[in-house]
């Protein structure tokens, strides 16, 4: 028998099938989310689950633990998603949680620390000793997610548009030049089409060249990352103020960790201690939790 773990985020769905000996088979599929009231989200989820079922072959999947962005922190509100899983895998042990609860459990036991995540979006999470979720941020790109990939990409675009509107010189190697090159645009009309015709992941993808420029010393890119760090610091401090535990260990995960020491050093200063970077394969850990749920 197999257990299945899924780490379903806005960039990709990473999954792991674990057999009784602990051997893992991993895979990556297109992004999934918990917004099953949208026909396209529901169809994409069904497609990915059928891909995973096919990868399992003739072996039965006996339990599933899945962390999926856009689901509810209240298990009672995830009934429709569980029904979709059951329609494909049968009435087996299935637990669906928000992706950041999975992220937390992949790194900490209950009540042990703070999980800070900055990928496309941003959130800090703490689970109490009884499993209650305490969160800061994670409101989505329309309401928040400051300091994460989409926000960084959007800020780079905004600064480029300001340079265009004010007819400022755009020099080779500058943030503005990088944005125009990345988007293959020359003016507001081109950028407008890029922004409003693309998925949010296309804008979040701009974070990588911004990070690269910051490492090379480009001042505007460094300024964006410094502001991003301030937002991420605030998420940790919000959790601390709610749980009244000021010295909890912090693990930092997500694509924005690629900024390396530049952003990590700022976060360390802001929270008064060093964060640790995630080294866990989260989908693999999810498959282990699924097996533990059967025990």
Automatic annotation (TrEMBL):
InterPro entries: ATPase_BadF (IPR002731), ATPase_NBD (IPR043129), Euk-type_GlcNAc_Kinase (IPR052519). SUPFAM superfamilies: Actin-like ATPase domain. Pfam families: BcrAD_BadFG (PF01869). Residues 4-266 form the ATPase BadF/BadG/BcrA/BcrD type domain. This is Unannotated protein. It comes from freshwater metagenome. The lineage of its organism: unclassified sequences, metagenomes, ecological metagenomes.
